[in-house]
């Protein structure tokens, strides 16, 4: 997986393919349903989503790139925090007693549709790693 991208400095035309390939790889590792994948990407039209999935390429908006960037940062943090890849990949599905999640999983929090929730989960994991 790629390192965390800085959304504000992204040349979006060049990153569509790599970002989508990384996202769909992450989605497979996290065993995400299609509806969840679309939600995490900001609910693109179904036809657009399937085109991205089929071609593993496309021009992405700044919002979609930002979402993928946060997700890749979350993925990277989990790989560092949990040496067992399966434990890292299933963490997003497990209930979490942190006040931030209120007994829900990180995935449930991220599926609100708000990019801010991806940011919050990323920040939470950064803090767990000691990166404030």
Automatic annotation (TrEMBL):
InterPro entries in UniProt: Xre-like_HTH, Xre/MbcA/ParS-like_toxin-bd
Pfam families: Xre-like-HTH, Xre_MbcA_ParS_C
Domain Antitoxin Xre-like helix-turn-helix, residue spans: 12-73
Stretches assigned to the Antitoxin Xre/MbcA/ParS-like toxin-binding domain: 78-130
Name of the protein this chain belongs to: Antitoxin Xre-like helix-turn-helix domain-containing protein
Species of the source: Dyella halodurans
């Amino acid at each position: 997986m790629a390192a965390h991208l800085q959304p504000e400095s992204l040349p979006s035309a060049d990153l569509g393919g790599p970002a989508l390939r990384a996202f769909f790889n992450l989605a497979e590792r996290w065993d995400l349903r299609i509806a969840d994948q679309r939600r995490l990407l900001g609910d693109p039209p179904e036809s657009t989503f399937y085109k991205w999935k089929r071609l593993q390429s496309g021009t992405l908006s700044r919002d979609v790139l930002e979402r993928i960037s946060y997700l890749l940062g979350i993925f990277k943090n989990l790989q560092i925090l949990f040496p067992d890849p399966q434990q890292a990949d299933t963490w997003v599905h497990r209930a979490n007693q942190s006040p931030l999640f209120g007994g829900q999983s990180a995935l449930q929090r991220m599926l609100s549709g708000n990019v801010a929730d991806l940011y919050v989960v990323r920040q939470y994991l950064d803090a767990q790693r000691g990166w404030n």
